[in-house]
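The pair is quoted verbatim underneath.

:::
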Amino acid sequence: MIADDAKLGPYTPLEVWIEEERKLVVRLKGPHVDTEPRVDIEGLTDLDYRSIWSEREGPPYEVWLAPDPVPDKLVLLRGEESTVIHLRNE
């Protein structure tokens, strides 16, 4: 669950989910041209960052190696700003 007012500089987190093989995907609203990663995740390092991709005219998606075990919440960071994302464990 992402708060409606979640904002990290020029980026707004839209969705966060876990895919197979421990892929943690963060979908963002914001510019495509920037440094990588666009946002950091508390507790993860640059070694956990995998890639960024997007569809033409679509939002950027960042892919990370998910922590094991997956926590109930993640803290996304950009500079001095942070936002907490609550994950659903279904």
Q: What stands out?
A: The mean pLDDT is 90.
